Amino acid sequence: MDLESIIHLSTTLVVGLLALLVSTNMLGKTQISQATPFHFISALVLGELLGNAVYDNEVNLYKILFAIALWTFLMFSIEMITQKFRKVRGFFEGNPSIVINKGEINFKELKKNRMDLNELQSLLRQKGVFSFKEVEYAILESNGSVSVLKKFEYGQPTKQELKIPIKEISLPVTIISDGEILKKNLASIQFDEKWVKELLYQYGIKDIKEVFYAQWDMAGGLFLSKKIKS
Q1: pLDDT attached to residue 145
Q2: How far apart are alpha carbons 83 and 81 in whole angstroms?
Q3: Phi, psi of 179 (to 5 degrees)
Q4: What are phi and psi for residue 72, nearest 5 degrees?
Q5: CA nearest neighbour of 45 among 63, 56, 59, 31
Q6: 20: CB partners within 8 A, 6+ apart
Q7: Residue 85 burial by CB count (10 A; 0-12/13-18/19+): exposed, middle or buried?
C-alpha cells in the first residue's frame, strides 16, 4: 500500500466516522437500539455505505458523504412522517402481535410472524419464563423481543400486597469516577466538593484520589470503591 492509498483510507475513515456520528445523532437513539426493522435497516445501510468507501478505491469521499447525507435526509423525513401520521407507522415500524392471549398460544400470529414454538420458548426464557402455563399474555414487539404478563399466581407480589412500608425511590448519582470529582453531577444534587471530602472522611478516606468510584443515593447513602494498590 502506497502513501497516497494510506492517506485516502485514513481520510475516508475519519470523515466517514464523523459523518456517521452526525447522522446517528440526527436520527436519534432508536438507530442504535434498532427498535424496529426499519431502524435496523437504516443502521445497516449507513454502516455499509462507509464500508464500501473503505474497500472501494473508486468511491471518492464526496460520493460517500453525499450518500450518507441523502440517506440521513430520507430516514429523517420518514421519522417525521411517522410522528405526524399514525396510520403509516405500522408500515415502517411494524405492529406488535399478541402471541399468547389469555394463556392460549395464538398459532395464527406465530405463523404470521414466521415464528415456531422453539423460538417463542427461547424468547420467553430470556424473560425468566420457563413454562407456557405461567403466561397470561405475551406480545411479540416490533424489534423481535417478547413482553410478558404472567398469570396472577406466577407474578411477583408487590410491596403493597405484602404490606411493606413504601420508601421514596431516588436516582443514584455518580460523584467520583477514576479518582476525580464530577462537579456537574454534584451540582445536580446541590452539593459541593467540601461536602464530598467531609463524607469521605467519615469513611476514613483523607484523599479523594484513593477512591476509584463513588455513588450517592439520597435513599441508600454512599457506595464507594477504593483503588486497588498494585
Answers
A1: 85
A2: 5
A3: 80, 10
A4: -60, -40
A5: 31
A6: 46, 47, 50, 68
A7: exposed
| Interval 103-145: pLDDT, tens | 999 999 999 888 888 999 999 999 999 999 999 999 998 778 8
Do the Cβ atoms of 109 and 94 come closer than 8 Å?
no
Confidence (pLDDT) at 169: 75
d(CA 137, CA 99) in angstroms, rounded, equals 8
- Residues in the chain where the model's pLDDT stays below 50: 32-33
The amino acid present at 55, given as its one-letter code, is Y
Is 162 in contact with 168 (CB distance < 8 Å)? no
Cα separation, 87 vs 214, in Å, equals 48
Grid cell at residue 19:
459523518
157: left (phi over 0), alpha (psi -120 to 50) or beta: beta
Max distance between CA atoms of the chain, in angstroms, equals 74
Distance CA 30, CA 112 (A): 25
Contacts of 44 (CB under 8 A, 6+ apart): none
Residue 68 zone, left/alpha/beta (φ > 0; ψ -120 to 50; rest): alpha
